[in-house]
Structure formats: structure tokens, C-alpha cells
Specification:
Elements (H helix, E strand, L loop, with lengths): L2 E5 L10 H9 L2 E4 L17 E4 L5 H13 L4 E5 L10 H10 L3 E4 L4 H9 L12 E4 L14 H4 L5 E5 L5 H12 L4 E6 L7 E6 L3 H8 L5 E5 L24
Parallel strand pairs: 1-4, 1-5, 2-3, 2-4, 6-7
Antiparallel strand pairs: 7-10, 8-9, 8-10
């Protein structure tokens, strides 16, 4: 049998992919992070499915559940918030399944930064303004950042920076990026993107921290800093330009 690591999307239950929903509806076992995955998604599971909330389980307990389901001959839907490719803690699960000889696949989902961009009604890449997006986080007590990936270093690029898991440390984010982006750099914070309680904060690098604190945002949020967020004057993309020769491959 197979373990299916499924990106459940950023929050709204209907943002799971068609493939993810199909697998969920056919899997007799479902492991999900109760603190992050919308409970409405569980209604898609078979009526007699075994549902396991992993919020209070450690990696060995989670692995034991996956291996047990495999040994019982059951497919498993392993729901992760957002998309499994970034900040999902999927690697350590896949490593243990490899060691146990349990097959698995990964089903992508809508990442939080994409949902945040949709909420802001912004394309994160703008011709002649910015064509690079950096997805990152900041060092915390639990996990240090690799050398060269601190904000002070990444900020030198001037690219749009998207920070996950950093709203609680917004003052630190501002302090480290101010020298590179300037106080007037457009900045936004989106919390609970795509959910009914979504919070959207817009401002500049020198004003966003106070907004975040006033709104009480400390988790389930992304911080975006970069000129493309506020650019209104830019050249149109070559993709749809009337000057483009559409007969050339």
C-alpha cells in the first residue's frame, strides 16, 4: 500500500487539488495536523476511515502509524498544510519510510505564499522591477539557519522576500532588512490566508511591525517585503505584447 503525502493547501478546504481530494476520499487511514489542516477536509474521508491527529505526536509515533497502516494493507492520506515542498517536515518522514520499505508519493498543494499573493491581488514578479522571489524563514531556538542564509545576507539581493514562521519576530525582521530595502519599501503580512478569518496588513517596512502587533498576529502568517508589492508603473510582459512574433517557437 502507499502513503500519500498531500498538500492540503493554505487553509480553505476547497483549495486542495482534485488529485488530493480523490486520494483522500479513497484512503481508509488519514493522518493530519489538527492545528493547521481545516477540519472540513476530513468530511472527504470514507465514513469508516481511521483519523489520526498528529498535532501531539512525535516523528517516531507518526512513523509507527504509517508503517502500521501499510502492514494492515491500507493506503494512507497524510495531510500537510500548504505544499509539502517547503517547511513541511516531510523529509524526515520519507527518510523513515525508505528505511522501513514503505512506498509513498507526494501530491503538491497550494503554498501559503501563493494564497497570500492572491489575497493581496499581486503578482510577485513584475517586469523590470523584480523577477526573483526568496522563500525563507529566520533562525529560532529550535532550528538555526545555514551560513549565508541570514536575512542580512539575503537582503543584499533586493529581491522580494517572503518569510514564513516569522510574524512573532517582526521587529527583528524589520531591523535586519531596513538597511537593504529602506523604510519606505512596500511590505505586507497575510495571516490565515484563504480562511474566513484572513487578515491582510499593508504598509511599509517602517510601519508594518506596529500593525502586526495591533492585529495580534503571531502565527500562521507570511511576511512579504519588496518593491514589486507596490509597483504601479512597469513595462508590460513580452508574453502578450503585440510586438511579439507569435510564429517563432
Amino acid at each position: 500500500m502507499t502513503v500519500h503525502f498531500i498538500g492540503a493547501g493554505p487553509g480553505a478546504a476547497d483549495l486542495i487539488t482534485v488529485r488530493g481530494a480523490r486520494i483522500l476520499a479513497a484512503s481508509p487511514v488519514c493522518l493530519y495536523a489538527g492545528s493547521l489542516v481545516p477540519v472540513e477536509l476530513l468530511a472527504e474521508c470514507p465514513e469508516d476511515a481511521r483519523l489520526v491527529d498528529t498535532a501531539n505526536l512525535d516523528i517516531e509515533q507518526i512513523t509507527a502509524e504509517l508503517v502500521r497502516a501499510h502492514e494492515d494493507g491500507h493506503d494512507v492520506a497524510r495531510l500537510h498544510s500548504g505544499d509539502p515542498s517547503v517547511f513541511s517536515a516531510v523529509n524526515e518522514q520519507m527518510k523513515r519510510l525508505d528505511e522501513a520499505g514503505v512506498p509513498y508519493e507526494v501530491v503538491p498543494g497550494v503554498p501559503a505564499f501563493a494564497a497570500a499573493a492572491a489575497a493581496l491581488k499581486r503578482e510577485l514578479t513584475v517586469p523590470t522591477v523584480g523577477q526573483t522571489v526568496i522563500l525563507t524563514r529566520i533562525a529560532q531556538r529550535a532550528t538555526a539557519m545555514p551560513e549565508g542564509e541570514d536575512l542580512a545576507t539575503l537582503g543584499r539581493s533586493g529581491a522580494l522576500i517572503v518569510l514564513h514562521l516569522a510574524a512573532r519576530y517582526v521587529d527583528r525582521v524589520v531591523d535586519e532588512l531596513l538597511p537593504h530595502y529602506g523604510a519606505d519599501c512596500p511590505t505586507a503580512v497575510v495571516a490565515m490566508a484563504s480562511r474566513p478569518d484572513e487578515i491582510i496588513l499593508r504598509g511599509t517596512l517602517d510601519s508594518i511591525a506596529e500593525q502586526v502587533k495591533a492585529a495580534g498576529v503571531i502565527r500562521t502568517a507570511v511576511i512579504m517585503v519588496g518593491r514589486t508589492l507596490g509597483s504601479e508603473q512597469f513595462r508590460d510582459s513580452h508574453l502578450y505584447s503585440p510586438e511579439r512574433d507569435r510564429h517563432v517557437c
